[in-house]
Amino acid sequence: MSKTMDADPNSAHRRAWDLIPWVVNGSASEDERRLVERHAEDCADCREEFDFQCQLRDGMAPRTAPAALDADHALGRFWGRVDAEQTGSLWDKLATQPPASPTAPAEHQRRGRWQTAMIAAVLVQALGLAALLGVLWERPRGAEYQVLSQPPAGMADIRLVPAPGLSLGELHALLDRHELQLLQANADATHFALGLRPGAGLGVAEAVQRLRAEPGVLLAEPLTPPKP
């Protein structure tokens, strides 16, 4: 039976295609790697997919020593962007303006109040996004009760590369829809390691398939090879 399946071109193509992520991330066996390489010599689709995933892997490789992104580091990067792009420019304008005199026109006073309100709005927005980021990081620690049949908490099951336009709110909703929790991210928050929440009603393979159907997901792949 297995010989018949191996002789079937469609079966061989399906097997090689499914093994590409494991070859790219280095977890495939030597035999599996050779199988993909031999098949890709004659299959343009698999060759193109293999090259694409290699480009993604190379693009996600950290330029410095790898380190898990914690909430404090992410918040620091966020405040840096706020200071450089928004808040800093408004404060600079206020700092260079002369103090208003009692005889200053009402229009000048209104402009000063408007700029102060803009600064406050930027700060409120920043605090809201920072709070959401903190919630995303704290959620995996919430489950304190665990039965013996459950896997250890905190183990990453899925690698996710979101589309560039995916917002934090959309990411939060996506994790809720598919019963996932955020465990790790790279320094630029361009790809994430996800885990199934305790008591999730789906497995890793099903979660990966659902993520691949999401318009805001560029790449979703399991971090552990499928069981034979």
TrEMBL record:
- Which keywords does UniProt give here? Membrane, Transmembrane, Transmembrane helix
Task: Tell me the Pfam families matching this sequence.
Answer: zf-HC2
Q: Which InterPro entries match?
A: Anti_sigma_zinc_sf, Znf_put
Residue ranges annotated as transmembrane are 117-137
Where the record annotates domain Putative zinc-finger, the positions are 15-47
The name this protein carries in UniProt is Putative zinc finger protein
Give the species this sequence originates from: Roseateles toxinivorans
